[in-house]
Structure formats: structure tokens, C-alpha cells
Amino acid sequence: MAVVPGVWRALSSSLLVAAPVIILLLGSGRATVYEPTWDSLDARPLPAWFDEAKFGIFIHWGLFSVPSFGSEWFWWYWQKQQQSCYVRFMKANYPPGFSYEDFGPLFTAEFYDANQWADVLQESGAKYVVLTSKHHEGFSLWESKYSWNWNSVDVGPKRDIVAELATAIRSKTNLRFGVYHSLFEWFNPLFLSDANSLFKTRMFSFTKSLPELYELVIKYQPEIVWSDGDGDAPDSYWNSTGFLAWLYNESPVRDTVVTNDRWGQGCICKHGGYYTCADRYNPGHLINHKWENCLTIDKKSWGYRRNAKIQDYLTIEELVQQLVETVSCGGNLLLNIGPTRDGLIMPIFEERLRQLGSWLKVNGEAIYNTVPWKAQNDTATPGVWYTSKPEDNIVYAIFLKWPAAGCITLDQPYARAEQTQVTLLGYSTSLKWISLDKQGMMVSLPQLNSAQLPCRWTWVLKLSHVV
């Protein structure tokens, strides 16, 4: 196996890697050295940009986009579980003996335009993007020397998808670029052999999965490494702590990279940079660790489905609500789209992203660079969520429904006479308010019809100097 110089330490056991890493980095004068232990790695402060960003886009693209039926777990459901709907689909649409590998040449990406994708992502208001560089099927979207003849340069598009998107994102947008990487592969013989040995052997992790991770980081310098799919193997099998120590200490993105919590069985919601805890995770309350809500516009699949119905897609109202609730409780929203096999972002996905962008152009100051307030939502008026900028003495009250009465009651803020000012984002005139008996306030909203409202779907009151 060819190993990148300097990486051999992290490919060794954690005990063997610790001393060489410390010696090397103390000599370089770096103030903090992270050891390959969870106690040390979990103590690393999360780079500030991630919490400030609040909103990112997930892109699930791979060979599963060719059949574009059911789910991105198509191969597993068809050949491992032999679910009847997948078996019938293959019999009806493909010749006898057709294998999953035969989807490779059909993954054409002829309409894939990374610059056009970048334009759509920029218009969404997102601050980072995460591309599935390799899903559980094992097909890599870059020219990986550890995935010979099973990658997008050798098969199908004959293009380095990761490189093209990374270049477009960095040259045309202000988004951070990140990659998703599946640790395991469903049907890789090396992984299956290691699993049969109860992971006492490490042929797959040390000759395939880990080298891919180093290759991705060194070649493309992603600022998010979104790990997934532990295959029921412990983090010691994956040598996750060794890789993360290298990533945080020596990699070209060591100062800015963020990672999630999916680094081995039992790690999720416990170890790593920020927590994902589960797909579509939204606790609805404040938790004491940075977290992310990864959510799909298509409620039933992360990959593109040709058989999706209109009711399968989240509405813009539902998406804005998810964003608001997530940010109010200290999380980031990672919103997923699934392109087609030929590289198109379908109009319904593009529409949702552009709608979010138009909402954020008016109300983004209540989302970006904010922190949770003392209360996450309001008890008097359901559907009101709070964010804040304490350094500016500002609280934002984000309300999901425009009240028919023309006024809104907030029982959480305590207003200060002659100090508190209230405005509606997108509307220039200050609003009138009165204090309630004990705590809280009532704000009179402008008398506007729907065409005159500063935006649709959700609105934001900006409250200055309240407690």
C-alpha cells in the first residue's frame, strides 16, 4: 500500500502514534497538541466559523442516482434484503443478469455543471456544502488510487466530481467546501472478511477506508469531514482517533476543519466535533454541545427519486420552520438535495433553495452569527422562536404565523421604557409596543396586506435592549 509521507503514524495503533505526533508538533511550536484519545480530541474547540454559519447544503450523488428509485440504499435493499419492490423494479426495467456494477457506465453526469451548482448554492444563503464523495456503495466521486476502476474518473462521467465542485465553490462563492465519506462499504470483500473476524483483522480499514480519507484531505482540503457508516465496527477498528489527531495537528486544514460524531460504533452523539445524533435530529430544546440537523427536502430519500410525488417534498414553510427551530436551539441545518444521474439539480430542489435564499436576504441577521437566548421559544404565543446577539443587546423574535389581530404578545422579553426599540426586519418604521403587567410585551404590527409584507413564510421582530 502506498502511504502518504507523514501519515504512517495515524495508520498505526493509537498507542504507537501518540509519541511521534507529540515530538513532531512540539518542535513546530504549535500551542496545542491533540493526542489520539477521545478525551484529548473532544477537548478541541470547534472552529468558530461553523457555529456562525448556521446553514449548509448536503448533496447525495452516486450510482444510486441511476436507478433513482426508492432510496440511496438501493443496492442493499435490492440484493441484500431482496425487498420485493426493488426486485420487481429491476425485473421490469433491466435485463436478466444486470448487476449493480452495470450502473457505473450509466452514471453519465453529462449535464453536470459545477459552476451552475455553485450559483444555486450561493443563492440559497447557505454558508457551507457537503458532497457525498463516497457512499456505502463504495463508488468514489474522485480519482482515488484506492478505488481503482470504481470511481467517477475511470467509470461513467470520466470526471473528477469532487475537484470540479471544490474549484467552483471556492472561486464563485463564499461557501466552505466539505466532503461526506462512508467508512464502510456494503459488499467490499475486505470489509466482509474483517467483519467475519469480528474486526480482529483490519485489511479494509488500513488499505481502503483510511487511505481514502487522507487522500481526500490532502488533495481537496475540505473544511468539513462528514463521516458516516461505521458498519457496526468500533472506532479502534477504524483508527478514528489516530486519523483525527493527524487531521487536527498536521493536516492542511488543521486550524479550520470541523468533523461530526460518526467515527465508530457508539461514537454518535458522544465523540467528535459536533453532534448529529441521528438523521433529521431536531431535539426542540437547547443541548450543551454544538449539533447539526441533517434533513432531506425529499422526506423519503437522500438520493434523487424519479417516483417521488409532490407531497413527498417539504414545503418552504416547513423548511423555514426547521431552520428557525434548529438555530434557536443552538444547531446548524444541513439541508439535503439529490441530483439526477446526468447532473441536474431538479427544479423543485432549486426552487426550495432559492426561496430559502430570498427569506435569508431579509431575515439572515436573525440567523447568521447568532446565539441561543435565555428562552428558545415563547410560552404565550406558540410558533415564536428566539435568537440573540448579546454583544449588540439584540434579541430576535421569529414568528411563524402572521397574527390576524395585528399584534403579537411575547411573554419572554422584558422591555425597558425609553430604551427598547422594536422593528420588523424588512420594514423600516419602528413598531409600537406596550409592557404587560409583570413580564412581557405586546407589539403592534404594521397594517400590511400580503403583497406588502417584507417577506413570506416567517417574520422577524428585532428587539433591542430587552432582558
Automatic annotation (TrEMBL):
Secretion signal, residue range per the UniProt entry: none
| Protein name as it appears in the record | Alpha-L-fucosidase
Its family remark reads: Belongs to the glycosyl hydrolase 29 family.
Record flagged with keyword Chaperone: no
Write out the catalysed reaction. an alpha-L-fucoside + H2O = L-fucose + an alcohol; a neolactoside IV(2)-alpha-Fuc-nLc4Cer(d18:0) + H2O = a neolactoside nLc4Cer(d18:0) + L-fucose; a neolactoside IV(2)-alpha-Fuc-nLc4Cer(d18:1(4E)) + H2O = a neolactoside nLc4Cer(d18:1(4E)) + L-fucose
Q: What are the recorded GO MF terms, alphabetically?
A: alpha-L-fucosidase activity
One GO BP:
fucose metabolic process
Provide the Glycoside hydrolase family 29 N-terminal domain boundaries: 31-365
Annotated Pfam families:
Alpha_L_fucos, Fucosidase_C
Transmembrane helix among keywords: yes
Kind of enzyme, top EC level?
Answer: hydrolase
Q: Its quaternary structure? A: Homotetramer.
Q: Which GO terms describe its cellular component?
A: lysosome
Looking at the record, the residues that make up the Alpha-L-fucosidase C-terminal domain are: 376-463
Q: What is its EC number?
A: 3.2.1.51
Organism, as annotated? Microcaecilia unicolor
* Record's function text: Alpha-L-fucosidase is responsible for hydrolyzing the alpha-1,6-linked fucose joined to the reducing-end N-acetylglucosamine of the carbohydrate moieties of glycoproteins.
Q: Where is this site: May be important for catalysis?
A: C294
Q: Where are the transmembrane segments?
A: 55-78
Keywords on this record? Glycoprotein, Glycosidase, Hydrolase, Membrane, Signal, Transmembrane, Transmembrane helix
